[in-house]
Specification:
Blueprint (H helix, E strand, L loop, with lengths): L8 H20 L2 E2 L8 E4 L7 E4 L6 E2 L18
Antiparallel strand pairs: 1-4, 2-3
């Protein structure tokens, strides 16, 4: 997260909430991103407006039927994956 949001609790809450809601929506329709990392979370903000979050790079995404295959960026994978 960029320094522009450092210490701005309402902005950070908004970013986290939007990210969680986006993932909840995607999972609800059976899409799993599989490579979620800071580089794939895009945040835009105009001075005075709340930040807007978008998830990018769905190149490794899958549907519910393919979740047993290990994919992702090695530095962001959980231990033991």
């Amino acid at each position: 997260m960029t320094k522009m949001f450092y210490g701005n609790i309402p902005a950070v809450k908004s970013i986290f909430t939007q990210l969680a809601e986006a993932l909840q929506y995607l999972h609800g329709i059976g899409i799993f991103h599989r490579d979620l990392k800071p580089e794939n979370v895009l945040i835009t903000s105009q001075r005075g407006d709340p930040p807007t979050v978008a998830i990018a790079d769905f190149g490794l995404s899958s549907d519910a039927l393919m979740t047993n295959i290990e994919l992702g960026s090695i530095h962001y994978m959980s231990p033991g994956a």
